[in-house]
Design a protein that fits this description.
Number of helices: 3
Radius of gyration: 22 Å
Order of helices and strands: HEHEEEEEEH
Structural class: alpha+beta
Shape: globular
Distance between the termini: 20 Å
CATH class: Mainly Beta
CATH superfamily: Galactose-binding domain-like
Number of strands: 7
Mean pLDDT: 78
Largest sheet: 7 strands, antiparallel
CATH architecture: Sandwich
């Protein structure tokens, strides 16, 4: 009976941890609806927003594999709609390599629950200065959202926003509304562990087994 209870405890704990952290194997941005503030020369097929989440990591913008906004917008942004709420684990951004590496600088990665990314959002990452051409970011505290925006404020350089591929890894949130400002994995694990301990104790008591070694 002790072996059975230990097995039950292990399965419940494993499933609970996966529900909090997930396996991060799904690129939830792939081929989802994407928009951006503007498109260079209005050439959507060559520089449009879908070039950043079509699964092509080619980093040569002149081949038509990257997005490209104009340089005159007060802010530059690119947004992808996941369709549902997801807990985000990591974001991978592939930038242009054939030219103008300094343009890939001073931007933010924002998560939000509505299409209005400017009023309410959670900050996943803030890049200060030039970023590497392949950027891998882990979102702190496993933030959640329905949308992700790469946001760049205009400055005296007037750099456009150019993204060759944006991959977002996470897991769908089901059965509850998530407050992106309060979800804390450590709190979730503590609650889950205490619940499992109580379940284990109750199960042992039902079989008249005295619990041993449970804090």
């Amino acid at each position: 009976m002790r072996e059975i209870l230990n097995s039950v405890f292990y399965v419940l704990l494993t499933n609970s941890l996966q529900s909090v952290f997930g396996n991060g194997s799904l690129n939830i941005a792939l081929n989802k609806n994407a928009t951006q503030v503007s498109t260079f020369n209005d050439n959507v097929s060559r520089f449009g927003p879908m070039n950043a989440n079509n699964g092509n990591r080619n980093q040569v913008a002149t081949n038509g594999d990257c997005t490209h906004t104009t340089d005159t917008d007060p802010v530059k942004w690119w947004t992808v709609d996941f369709g549902n709420m997801y807990t985000i684990e990591s974001v991978h951004i592939y930038a242009r390599k054939d030219c103008c590496l300094e343009r890939h600088s001073d931007f933010e990665i924002r998560l939000h629950n509505t299409s209005d990314w400017s009023s309410q959002f959670s900050l996943c990452y803030k890049q200060i200065g030039q970023a590497p051409s392949e950027l891998y970011v882990n979102c702190t505290d496993h933030l959640s959202g329905k949308y992700l925006t790469v946001y760049k404020k205009d400055d005296h350089h007037h750099y456009p926003l150019t993204l060759c591929e944006v991959e977002v890894y996470g897991n769908e949130v089901t059965g509850k509304t998530v407050n992106t400002n309060t979800l804390k994995p450590t709190t979730e694990i503590t609650t889950i562990t205490n619940q499992i301990r109580q379940m284990t104790t109750n199960t042992r008591n039902n079989y008249d087994i005295q619990p041993k070694g449970i804090a």
